[in-house]
Amino acid sequence: MIELNNISKTFNKGKPNQVVALDGVTLHIQQGEFVVIVGSNGSGKTTMLNMLAGTVSPDFGSVLIDGKYVTKLPDYKRSKWVARIFQNPLTGTAAELSILDNFRLAALRTKNKGLTVGKTENFKNLVRDKIATLGMGLEDKTEQPIGTLSGGQRQALTLLMSIMDDCKILLLDEPTAALDPRSAALVMRTANELIKQYNLTALLVTHNLKDAGSYGSRIVQMSEGRILKDIATEEKYKLKQNDLFEWFG
Amino acid sequence: MDFYLTALLQGLCFAGIAFGIYISMKIFNIPDITTDGSYTLGGVVTGIMLTHHQPGWVILIAVIFAGGIAGALTGIIHTKLKINALLAGILVMTALYSVNLTILGRSNLPLLNFGTIFNTVNFITNGNQNSLLILGVFVTILTLLIGYLLKTDFGIAMRATGNSEPMIRALGVNTDRMKIIGLAIANALTALSGYLITQLQGFADISMGIGIVIVGLGSVIIAETIINWLRISSVWLSLILVMAGAVIFQMVLAFTLNIGVDANLLKLVTAVFVLLIVGLPCLTAARS
After folding, report:
1. Which of A114, B41, B166, B189 could form a disulfide linkage to B20, CB 3.0–4.6 angstroms apart?
2. pLDDT lower than 70: segments of chain A
3. Tens-digit pLDDT profile for residues A73-124
4. How far is B261 from B255, CA to CA, in rounded Å?
């Protein structure tokens, strides 16, 4: 599904603040895999995710999605495959727009946004039903600006928005970093359910080692722009949280 | 009373600027300064085409195109050359001064003997009331068009652009293109205000646009204050309030003139008035 081949990226090349973010990273991910990426700050996790999202382009190497060469494709053209959940809940939604408007845009992620009014009664009901599955009582507030909701609610809605349109790859960049423990748990649970239900290929960047231990089918540890450990299915299930702590020791 | 009727007419003429600023504020979160230039551009194109006896609908289309190109230029400079939106607007506005002067050929062009939109179509014999009717129809059509646009899928994407650019790009929208199109629409609307006001007052003037952005800004801020205050989320109601904002703004200015404030102080009064509206939410919050 995803191929990163020998990717290198250096920011501020030749300047005193030069940073080697990725140093020859190769990572192949199969359809349906749920990869958790851990590593200390500055290890290149987020850069790698952005490389897939298309907001950062590599100095060397190639990116393939679904067998297609997408290295030079900008982010708004990769939305055909990729849905993103941002670290900041405020980034993932348009605050001034209603919940319904946000969902309408999400439902058109892979399509053209044309000059027709798409918010039909059918669509409104569809959104209401989807939101009801969260059990947050938000289904009656679809006309409310999404900015009036809490960070946890917004993040949970962003997750739902990602499956409003055909989605193959879900990128989660520390989705719970800004949330309280209860909201964080709910968001992670929702994410996990959606990934399973829709058989999504997912990448989760997280600093929460508990989440890294309990979610995902594969775990990758990064350090200084390289992949340090890459542990798949069976062995990942055997990993204890203590083992993960030792990685950072 | 006629005094306030004139203010009402002017306010309706300025609805275009108000809509334009409303759109550019939605996309950028800052008002587009190109306004000063594209408003005058609309005015001088109207003036020069009227004196060349062009039919009304041709003038209308030409004005929309001229304003659109001016806005698109600002958008292109901002997105492709990564220049601050405010500066991009100032650059295009400055350049437009020379363009406008070249089009007009002189600094003032009287149009009293030419057939304008207000004196060729006669519903009522009273001139001002006839103008009011024509403007009413014109602005209603404009409001309906913009309202429909903002409600479409494209319109939702446009409104979201200023909220969160990373999000809207992740949803498959080319934000650069959206900004260019949005600014083109905004400035086409602004040029329409120039088109209307030139015909209403019967002359085109090279300095008619100086500081006009404040008129649009004031109107939008009046509207936004009411929108936030009453928690309005309807697009239609918001647009009607923006239009009403433009009228209220002119009414306040007419009132200040009427109570005998020196006309030279008008810009000062304008600035203080806008400052008051902007500061009002803060001032009331501080008291309670």
Report:
1. B189
2. 233-234, 237, 240-241, 249
3. 999 999 999 999 998 988 999 998 999 999 999 999 999 998 988 888 999 9
4. 9
Ramachandran angles phi, psi of A41, nearest 5°: -60, 140
How many Cβ atoms are within 10 Å of A82's Cβ, its own excluded? 26
Question: Most B CBs within 10 Å: which of A100, A101, A170, as the mutation test of the B interface?
Answer: A101
Category of B231 on φ-ψ map: left (φ > 0), alpha (ψ -120 to 50) or beta: left
Give A234→chain B minimum CA distance, Å. 33
Please provide the size of chain A in residues. 249
Neighbours of B262 (CB within 10 A): 10
Is residue A174 within 8 Å of residue A202, measured between CB atoms?
A: no
CB contact under 8 A, B159 and A97: yes
- What gap in Å lies between CA A214 and CA A237, rounded to an integer? 8
Residue A6's CB: how many other CB atoms inside 10 A? 13
Q: Which residues of B touch A96 (CB under 8 A)?
A: 159, 163
Per-residue pLDDT of B185-230, as tens digits, reads 999 999 999 999 999 999 999 999 998 999 999 999 889 888 888 8
Longest dimension (CA), chain B: 60
Establish if B27 touches chain A: CB-CB under 8 angstroms. no
Nearest chain A alpha carbon to B29 = A96
* Alpha helix segments (H runs only) across B81-202: 85-104, 117-120, 127-151, 153-161, 165-170, 175-201
The residue among B171, B173, B227, B238 with the most chain A CBs within 10 A of its CB, best to mutate, is B171
Closest residue in B to A109 (Cα) is B171
Q: Nearest-5° angle of CA A139, CA A141, CA A145?
A: 130
**Using CA atoms, how far apart are residues A31 and A11, in angstroms rounded to an integer?**
31
Contact B249, B280 (CB under 8 A): no
Report the alpha-carbon distance of residue A226 to residue A8 in Å, rounded: 10
Closest in A97, A117, A119 to B163, CB measured: A97
Distances (CA, A) of B72 to A218, B258, B266, B281: 48, 40, 32, 34
Q: Write out chain B residues lying below 8 Å of A109, CB-based.
A: 170-172
DSSP 8-state symbol, B106: S
